[in-house]
Amino acid sequence: MPRTTTPTPLARLLVARIRERGPLTFAEYMRECLYHPEHGYYSRAETRRFADYYTSVDVHPIFGRLVARQLAELWVLLDRPAEFWAVEAGAGAGRLSQHLLDFAARELSDFYRALRYVAVEPSPARRAAHTASFGSHRKAGRAVSAAEWPAEIPAGCIFSNELLDALPVHRVVREKGILREIYVAARGDELCEQLGALSAPALAEYFRTQGIELLEGQQAEVGLEACAWIEDAGRRLGRGFVLTVDYGHEARELYNERHLRGTLLAYHQHRASEDLLAAPGEQDLTAHVNFTALDLWGRRAGLERTGLVSQARFLLALGRGNEFADLYDPGQSEVERLRARLLLKNLIFPEGMGEAFQVFIQHKGIEHPHLTGLEPC
Length: 377
Known about the structure:
- This protein is of the alpha/beta class and 377 residues long.
- The protein has a single domain, classed as 3-Layer(aba) Sandwich (Rossmann fold), CATH 3.40.50.12710.
- The chain has helices spanning 9-21, 26-35, 56-59, 62-77, 95-107, 109-114, 124-127, 130-139, 202-210, 224-236, 251-254, 291-299, 311-319, 334-348; strands spanning 24-25, 84-89, 115-120, 143-146, 153-161, 170-175, 178-187, 190-196, 219-222, 237-249, 265-268, 271-273, 284-286, 289-290, 304-310, 357-364.
- Helix 4 (62-77) crosses helix 5 and helix 10 packs across helix 12.
């Protein structure tokens, strides 16, 4: 996205803050760009975001329906508890919630009666849409909308779809054999990059824990907030699972020679850019998820690795049981059924979302669970 001639309201606030307090870490900058209560990208009404990106949920309800089938299987693996907590982190306007709850109510009645669905969304503007998206399920006592996670989740699953890629990250570069941090500073009225010492020892420890050493001149992201997120999830969960759908890699691939400039990108009107400082608050910022870090930091809170597969493999494994009958709505014409099959291809084909997105599952309090979504195709 090209730099705008007129600074955004958030850009003016950030420049003033930097002049008063000094440079920001990129994590601080990214947090303000995405989550500032007034000017943050994710604080605005969600109807504006379709000009920038869409998710698997937007393609077809089959995504939510198959996630519902996987959650129902998790409920069975946990011995059918009377209350199964399904906590969706980063629920947005509630489209995934609606697809999942509608399908569970129609096709998975036993599971639905045990379901305690919590749609967690910090943005008031997006949370306001939950009444319309799954209001009937709220009235039935099966779902609630919340700004924060439950303090305790006795038995169930914490899951997210394209959330962790938008958690703030620090940026570092290896210069003359040592790690330096990339800060956001101000030059006049414009934002700029500035190198400095690491803001915290945890940045270097992050790489040591994973056995990663960057190449000279290599830039990389450090996802300390994602590490804190997965630890928090593990601590709150009594028994159950954490299911993460996002794009990313294991550490060895994430920090190899193919990613010498890191993975951070800005998105505006479906166009990707490396101009991360352009128009703060008006463009999305994302970085690839480090699944190795989620595994290692999750273990600190009692989570164990269940498996990591592509979205294509996950959906195909769950759908083949009934030959993808869940793809269709009652009474659809053959033309409508054909269109549904074409949309499914976007979710499973390598040139679509099928191989770009990964499904990472962790478990706690259950021995060696066998999940249909992780089965080989």
